[in-house]
Amino acid sequence: MTDGYGPRLSVLSEEECYRLLRSQTVGRLGVIADGYPLIFPVNYVMDRSSVLIRSRPGTKLTAADRQNVTFQVDKINSVEESGWSVLLRGQGEVVSAGPRDAIRMSAERSGLKPWVPGDDFQLVRVIPNGISGRRISPSSVNDWWWDTGAYM
Amino acid sequence: MTDGYGPRLSVLSEEECYRLLRSQTVGRLGVIADGYPLIFPVNYVMDRSSVLIRSRPGTKLTAADRQNVTFQVDKINSVEESGWSVLLRGQGEVVSAGPRDAIRMSAERSGLKPWVPGDDFQLVRVIPNGISGRRISPSSVNDWWWDTGAYM
């Protein structure tokens, strides 16, 4: 499936977007703070269709709780000029202490790094409202541009 | 310099942030649209302390023009669990046709990919208001977490 800009840029299905999200361990959380769309690299695991992120208290936690956030993952080969990007839009939610312990155990089983006892971490969940993704294939030569004008 | 979370996370100087920005060719533009902090991978070049991005007309262009935007670049080694991230906050500006030709030539000399005649590109400049960056060193073992709570 192409988006009208030529065959080089293909739109990913929702299923493919989630498959790619499950394939990585580092992504980027987008939050709005002080009127800016801040971008923070984070480790994460998927919990069904939600994203689980560990965070210390701070800007990104405050700005994520019960707010519109995004979670973005990409893998780009700048030599081959190929790659993909997935953008999940959702609602951020700081997980409270009770559910946190259950989620923590589940998350550790899923590969989210363990943390030391007494660590002042918080767990942020991103509940999806929508997801989209694009892939650029290596056969797209010469003049491809990673253009996501039709992203939304 | 550390940020109080231990020696694993170091704060980058402004000079180092710009050096790292100049070292890469793919970054992520953050814009606010429909109440979400959208994140788009883009190719870019630096023009002194500004970021130059080529874009087709669309969501990201409209959302970037004369608005608060961010530009983020990182390089993360998920095996070594090391890496860095730089976040530039600034004002987006769609460059109008006149100055665009001059900037385009300059940008092409700087390595921004050329585009075909008649292409409906626009050029977006991000004029910096502030920049910050973090580095995690590989010696940070076991329990490091890419935490940017003190980012701002």
Report on this structure:
The structure is a homodimer of 152-residue chains. By secondary structure, chain A is of the alpha+beta class. Helix content of chain A is 20%, strand content 45%. Chain A has three helices and seven strands, in the order βαβββαββαβ. A six-stranded antiparallel β-barrel of chain A has the order 2-3-4-7-6-5. In chain A, a hairpin with a 4-residue loop joins strand 5 and strand 6. The longest helix of chain A has 14 residues. The radius of gyration of chain A is 17 Å and the shape is globular. The two termini of chain A are 16 Å apart. The N terminus and C terminus of chain A are likely disordered. At the A-B interface, strand 2, strand 3, helix 2, strand 5 and strand 6 of A face strand 2, strand 3, helix 2, strand 5 and strand 6 of B.
Q: Largest chain-chain contact?
A: A-B, 53 and 53 residues
Mean pLDDT score of chain A, rounded? Answer: 79
Alpha carbon gap, first and last residue of chain A: 16 Å
Q: How many individual helices of chain A?
A: 3
